[in-house]
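Exercise 7b. Backbone tokens:
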């Protein structure tokens, strides 16, 4: 038995925790550089605003419909996510955090009324953190995802599903007729693991709903589509095929890329940006206890501008696999120097770490100098760097080529509508005065 706990319209809900005046109003959260909508309140969805809608196309709704648009505040969202997940873990003995707003919880062997248990956890999250959420319960992870969709839809669209399935939906508690009715009401595209392309293929074959999909035997699905879709169908039939992932496998690539708040022309600005991107990837690399052997860096202009176009990338092999920020940044800057060209308005850059391996796999070689002690000291230095930035905030300690902290940088993201980082930045905490 599994439960899927999902924060409703999570980014918007995080903003409403500290601004109750946003309740009942159409609210969206914008992507990096305030480009497009990446989160929408139910009121914004009712206005027809789609996910990914460009801001310049819907900006007029500020005046016509009272739309509130906010820049993404990822520091706030991450902190509230940690608080929500710590409470969600009380639902069962094992938890898999699937995304910033979703987690699976293993309910196997948990006694008592699971719906009532879920309701108490939901109320605790709402009271202690302020985030409304919905819970789906079922015997497989795919069915739990489907149950969560039913719970959210029944709450947001009365009449779409039976009213008692709103907020918390336990598919295992439904009778066969009621479960069939839920399957018939649910479009096949809503199933976890079925993307737009496969969904369209299924619809063209006359498979419109979840009920239609579960009528097909697994072997037919495997022959007509793929093993992955066969696994999805088996899960929908109640046969567990996807286990709880207690420790996700290390990433095979780690990247940090950003579009600039405004165009960049000079090498110094690009050098600062690439240094910061390389430092971020190096910290993530150390976080999963890996080394990288190659660094890729790219720069490009915007294809949406009528400026001269330029786009280049280069892969720089490192002398030996490492997780040292200085070595990784040095490789990235060497690549930047090789591909940089004057006379272009650069709009985006990024760094990607390639050829990753566990940090306990050491590359042994003859050296011309004594590097053993210096290697240990570099490991201690990187650990100290991470500890300081973890305690006092990202960017507290950086490499010199990243520029002066606090100085105005032309390449930083445009976040004209960002709310304060209420829980992670001392200078932006709320003040309560008598």
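Sequence design result:
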């Amino acid at each position: 038995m599994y439960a899927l706990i999902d924060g409703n319209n999570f980014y918007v809900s995080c903003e409403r925790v500290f601004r109750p005046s946003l309740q009942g109003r159409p609210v969206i959260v914008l992507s990096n550089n305030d480009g497009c909508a990446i989160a929408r309140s139910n009121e914004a969805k009712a206005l027809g605003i789609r996910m990914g809608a460009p801001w310049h196309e819907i900006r007029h709704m500020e005046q016509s419909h009272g739309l509130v648009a906010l820049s993404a505040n990822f520091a706030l969202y991450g902190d509230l996510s940690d608080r929500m997940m710590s409470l969600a873990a009380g639902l069962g003995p094992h938890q898999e955090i699937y995304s910033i707003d979703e987690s699976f919880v293993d309910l196997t062997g948990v006694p008592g009324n699971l719906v009532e248990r879920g309701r108490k956890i939901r109320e605790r999250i709402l009271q202690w953190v302020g985030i409304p959420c919905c819970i789906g319960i079922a015997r497989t992870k795919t069915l739990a995802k489907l149950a969560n969709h039913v719970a959210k839809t029944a709450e947001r669209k009365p009449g779409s599903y039976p009213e008692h399935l709103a907020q918390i939906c336990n598919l295992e508690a439904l009778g066969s007729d009621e479960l069939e009715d839920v399957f018939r009401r649910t479009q096949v595209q809503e199933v976890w693991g079925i993307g737009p392309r496969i969904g369209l293929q299924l619809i063209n074959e006359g498979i419109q709903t979840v009920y239609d999909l579960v009528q097909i035997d697994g072997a037919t699905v495997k022959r007509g589509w793929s093993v992955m879709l066969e696994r999805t169908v088996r899960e929908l039939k109640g046969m567990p095929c996807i286990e709880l992932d207690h420790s996700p496998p290390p990433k095979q690539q780690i990247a940090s890329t950003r579009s600039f708040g405004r165009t960049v022309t000079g090498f110094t600005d690009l050098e600062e940006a690439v240094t910061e991107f390389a430092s971020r990837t190096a910290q993530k690399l150390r976080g999963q206890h890996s080394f990288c052997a190659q660094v890729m860096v790219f720069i490009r202009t915007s294809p949406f501008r009528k400026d001269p176009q330029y786009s280049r990338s280069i892969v720089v092999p490192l002398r030996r696999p490492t997780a040292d920020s200085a070595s990784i940044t040095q490789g990235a800057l060497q690549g930047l120097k090789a591909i940089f060209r004057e006379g272009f308005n650069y709009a985006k850059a990024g760094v990607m770490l390639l050829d990753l391996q566990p940090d306990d796999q050491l590359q042994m070689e003859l050296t011309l100098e004594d590097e053993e002690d210096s290697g240990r000291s570099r490991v201690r230095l990187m650990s100290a760097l991470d500890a300081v930035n973890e305690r006092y905030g990202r960017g507290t300690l950086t490499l010199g080529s990243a520029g002066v902290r606090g100085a105005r940088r032309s390449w930083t993201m445009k976040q004209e509508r960002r709310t304060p980082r209420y829980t992670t930045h001392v200078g932006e905490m709320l003040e309560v005065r008598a």
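Instructor comment: The radius of gyration is 25 Å. The first strand starts at residue 2 and ends at 7.
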